[in-house]
Design a protein that fits this description.
This protein has one domain: ADP-ribosylation fold, CATH 3.20.170.30. The chain is α+β, with helices and mostly antiparallel strands. The chain starts with 10 loop residues before the first strand and ends with a strand. It is globular and about 35 Å long.
Length: about 100
């Protein structure tokens, strides 16, 4: 499926297991890995639910989508709540910035 890039909301969220933080840091950000895109959401509660698939107490990453987009990262709307990106460099993830 092809998506058209669009201007995203100011913040996007990604729910993860706390054990995944080290991997995200080691690869320099969120990477699609085996998927085509990184899945992000406009809804913090949805990010928590997504993270709970891996752990009882997930960590929610906050992406400054405006600055990320200005730096050249494209965001693609998949639905009202879900946005996609090929990668999100660590510099744009609050709390993980080097």
């Amino acid at each position: 499926m092809r998506y058209e890039p669009a201007e995203s909301p100011a913040q996007l969220y990604h729910g993860i297991s706390p054990t995944a933080v080290a991997e995200i840091v080691s690869v320099g950000g969120l990477r699609a890995m085996a998927r085509q895109y990184v899945h992000l959401t406009t809804d913090r509660v949805m990010a928590v639910r997504t993270g709970r698939r891996k752990t009882l107490v997930p960590q929610v990453l906050v992406i400054d989508a405006v600055v990320t987009h200005r730096a050249g990262v494209l965001f693609y709307p998949s639905s009202d709540l879900v946005w996609l990106a090929e990668d999100v460099p660590i510099a744009f993830i609050e709390g993980l910035r080097p």
